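Translate sequence into structure tokens.
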Amino acid sequence: MTSLDRFTLKNKVILLTGGAGLYGRGLTRDLAEAGARLVIAARSLDKLKAVAEEENARGLDVTAEPFDQGDESSVLSLRDRVLEKFGRIDGLVNNSVARPMKSPEAPVTDWEESMRINNTGPFLMTRAFGEVMAKQKAGSIVNIGSMQGMVGPSFELYKGTDMLQHPPPDYFIHKAAMLGLTRWYAAYLGPNNVRVNCLSPGGFYNNHNPVFHERYCERTFLGRMADPTDLGGAVIFLLSDASKYITGTNLPVDGGYSAK
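Result follows.
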């Protein structure tokens, strides 16, 4: 095996949650192109099927599966279907996220829904698939956090724009929790050769208000927001044998925002 061979995902069975969204669509393309036998899973099965068909038409190996991240029975059913089809699981990317809380003044039920899906959900996924990896004595879990889980909010970026002036706190809190989840399971699963790491992206450009966009870019070392090609390389690295001695870490992919 050459040094470059260690970066491949060829024939690895990888599960990516949320394979059709802002982060997920680019990750689906990149992981499949890296050779993974890729399973993408989310509640919106029709969208996932369309993505899978696009990638399979390019000769890649992508399967779409439905699941509800905040429902343990749904998580366990997904695990059983993946194992029935492939016989193993080599990598998990906890990428799914929901945004039910629309403002700081939103009803507490919106907060509770956010925590169910975005806090309890990754825990359920990591526990269920981590147990399988531990029995295999091999596997890699990558949690998609956010640099917003590392730093305080920059409300001044929104001032004078038509955007919400104070984004709700739930996203910041459950993304910060990803760091604790990562470290705990890295310690717990490490003796069985299962690695758990977190990747914290910065903001992805998505037709933002021009004033916000300019201010945000000025806050980064690279002078821009992320695009759908910026995340895949780091995720492939953390899933691959090239990172086999890396666990319990958090890798910011934010153009230098959190370091400034």
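Note: The longest helix spans residues 108-136.
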